[in-house]
What we know:
Keywords: Membrane, Transmembrane, Transmembrane helix. By secondary structure, the protein is α+β, with helices and mostly antiparallel strands.
Amino acid sequence: MAEQEVERFTVWGSRIIGGVGLAVVAVVLVLGVAGVGDPYHPAAYPVCGLVALLIWVMLIRPAVSVADGRLVLRNPISSVRIPLASIEHLVVRQWLAVRAGERRFTSSGIGRSYRQGMRDDQRGNVTGVEIASLSYGAIVERRLQKLAEDARTREGVEQYSDEQMALAADVRREWAWPEIGLGAALVLALVVTLLV
């Protein structure tokens, strides 16, 4: 079986800011473990862990990709896998919004500012080399719309049809159990250190 091509879309600004945030938390932890300055209260360590986890789930984890004929929306504590042919409407504004069946899904993995959206809308329907003048969010929006249209054509599914509604029933949500478990453990550690 041939491997399916995977396309990933992400906003690097949030990942860079998240990386800097994680580095700052790591420095604070190293200084505390090394005993530089006044000793930390034991609760400082789970707080640093919670801050690092929050940076991870809010800034680094969110992403959008296409794999195996599905749009994958990786959000802070879950991932949603939507069959491309089931997508009725898709738009990128402050975040990506997708409608499949009677359900709506969002992802902060891709977005564009209000100003970028206005500028892109004023340019109208651009093609060819002119597409480079659009924001990254608008380029991703057009690419995802094209992938969804191609999937509908390939599968012989008309937009807003009963077949498309049936495909939308195959949307799957997977919870980010490692992040959820780590968050619960850190909260428990914080409570224990505050009570002791």
